[in-house]
Design brief:
307 residues, alpha/beta, eight-stranded mixed sheet, two-stranded parallel ribbon, globular
Amino acid sequence: MEIDGVFSGGGLKGLALVGACKVFEQNGYTFKRTVGTSAGAIVAAMLAAGYTSIEMEEIMREQDFPALLDTRRTFIRLPFMKWIQLYWKMGLYQGVALENWFSDILANKGVYTFADLPEGSLKIIVSDLTNGKLIVLPDDLGEYGLQPDFFPVARALRMSTSIPFFFEPVTLHSLAGDAVTVDGGVLSNFPLWMFNDSENEETRPVVGMKLSHTPETKKKTTIRNGLGLYEALFSTMKDAHDEKHISKSLEKDVMFIPTEGISAVQFDLSDLQKEQLVVSGEQAASEFLTHWRRSKMPYLHKTLKII
């Protein structure tokens, strides 16, 4: 059965999304269209490129994530230099290694630009800070005078995963002017609104996978210092808008995956932590499907009649 998937951001916690996808595949579901932010964009792109969840899990488990943290080299090797670099480059890490990793993964499936993907199969959320707006790739590339057929999917992923001050932002160069872009989660970490239309309801069901507790069980944030304030600020900025605008009609289609104890920028995950994230996704998906399938019975009956 074909479904559309919406995947939230969450950094390295995105491994849980892979576990959830595995359960859906085992139950006979395939993703026709996908949309994602940050880590969710990576999963969405890999699905659109033709990866199975088993292949995705193998890649994620074997990847040395700390190797993707590429600092800029300086002639003066002193600790304070990284903070000077942060001021001028606006990020602790370049993100070049990260984009190269994306390129290699996609190239293995013959995907380089959006032209190599089925039309409409992938949407990636990015935040344009220069113009103060959210952009959807590849749909909005025309506004910048760029052609989707020539735009690298790996570059779009790099833009969507540029966690502010952690990775350097990506400057989108175009005839319309340069635009500084960062993590899509700044403006929409869970873009369920992409498929919130009557046309989609008539074509196939939507499933949203969100890396968080349910709103009812969400814990309050304790803020004791500047770092805690930044984390709370970014978390609120990421989630509050999307939670407010999830329509009542789609609430039943949202699966929440708890990932407590893991930070979005915890690149030094142990094998055990990777396993725990995958299992958390599997468990959440299994529980979700027990009631979600029953709610979709009218759709299944309609589909069978059409066939």
